[in-house]
Design brief:
Order of helices and strands: HEHEHHEEHEHEHHHHEHEHHH
Bound molecules: adenosine-5'-triphosphate, magnesium ion
Structural class: alpha/beta
Shape: globular
CATH topology: Rossmann fold
Number of helices: 14
Largest sheet: 8 strands, mixed
Strand content: 5-15%
Number of strands: 8
Length: 330
């Protein structure tokens, strides 16, 4: 648990691409639920950023279901993240595979070892350090489904965490579980004192006997035990700022979902989220996967490609103002 903390020191950075001198901006794309469009968003945003002139690396961290390379039309690469997990390759830079797009490289997730598909915590920290050394402006990390620590840590350590959700109850439910799990893990990793960590552990059990139901309850308990830790705790709460993308939107209500999620996060969880934008449902999205091309390449003029471009622009500009998201003026 402790090993990951030094990596957090550089986390939550936001800002324009001028940061390239300080290493690439790490953006993790998660969602809790499977099939909501994490890989779809990753591939299209990666391509759009590359076409804007940024050097981009897309990483497939979904070692159980690696398919990022397929979406870019890259035949199963000889080297992959699995070689790093197994210790056969020590530098992520050696895993880079060029795509058809000049500025865009990938690190594939193929050939995983079924005995141990995910890297252990120490290896994960080494990987994240290696990713920060890559010669790129943006590193996009495509996460697998679920809220297990291996997934959450990428989301937490990245400079920005994008949460992709579909406007359906199961996806919304899993998105909340994911955000809650990520938030508490972040708090736990930041807690210094043993007593405070114990309080966070108790709060993670929703039915804990202490009656801690929300992060605000937890904050009050921590302040009572250790006021200095209480102040640090508040800073940690403020630094957690996930960005929401609603994918496969079909109705006005779907589009508004992002705002509802932002207000629920603030009211019940105690952290701010930003609504980065939505992407409409587009029939050709599936065709683009079959054609092994990101939609923004396969059908650049489609409505969904336009929204994906707007999301990419916002990311490139490093805006975290929570302002009106693209397309709401329609
Ligand atoms: N906006 C969209 N409109 C229509 N279809 C879409 C859209 N976004 C994604 N899809 C389709 O949904 C399917 C699942 O998308 P994707 O593989 O990106 O999900 P995922 O969240 O990465 O899933 P997994 O958890 O399995 O990795 C794909 O076949 C894709 O074409
Ligand atoms: Mg995927």
């Amino acid at each position: 648990m402790r090993g990951i903390q030094p990596v957090f020191a550089s986390a939550n950075r936001t800002g324009p691409v001028a940061l390239a001198a300080a290493g690439p901006r790490l953006i993790a794309i998660g969602g809790g639920k499977g099939g909501v469009g994490k890989t779809f968003v990753t591939t299209n945003v990666a391509l759009t950023l590359a076409r804007m002139g940024h050097r981009v690396v897309a990483v497939d961290a979904d070692l159980d279901g690696a398919n990022l390379h397929t979406c870019f039309g890259v035949p199963s690469p000889e080297v992959s993240l699995a070689d790093f997990v197994a210790g056969r390759v020590s530098e992520p830079e050696k895993l880079l595979v060029q795509t058809r797009e000049p500025n865009l490289q990938i690190i594939a997730g193929t050939h995983s070892n079924l005995n141990q598909p995910q890297p252990g915590q120490t290896r994960r920290v080494e990987l994240l350090r290696g990713l920060r050394r890559l010669p790129a402006d943006f590193v996009l990390i495509d996460l697998g489904a679920g809220s297990q620590p291996a997934v959450l840590d990428y989301f937490l350590v990245a400079d920005e965490g994008l949460l992709v959700m579909r406007p359906e109850p199961t996806s919304v439910e899993n998105a909340y579980s994911f955000l809650r799990a990520a938030f508490y893990r972040r708090l736990r990793l930041a807690a210094r004192g043993h007593g405070v960590r114990e309080l966070v552990d108790q709060a993670m059990d929703q039915r804990n006997e202490r009656g801690i139901r929300t992060p605000y309850d937890l904050m009050r308990e921590i302040e009572a035990v250790d006021p200095v830790e209480g102040r640090r705790f508040i800073q940690t709460m403020r630094a957690f700022r996930p960005r929401i993308v609603v994918n496969e939107a079909r109705t006005a209500a779907d589009i508004k979902l992002g705002f509802a999620v932002v207000s629920v996060c603030e009211k019940f969880f105690g952290f701010k989220a930003d609504y980065l934008g939505y992407v409409n449902y587009q029939d050709e999205a599936r065709e683009s996967v079959a054609a092994r091309k990101p939609l923004c390449d396969y059908m650049a003029e489609s409505e969904a490609a336009t929204y994906l471009s707007r999301i990419s622009n916002k990311l490139a500009e490093g805006r975290v103002d929570g302002s009106m998201h693209p397309g709401m003026s329609r």
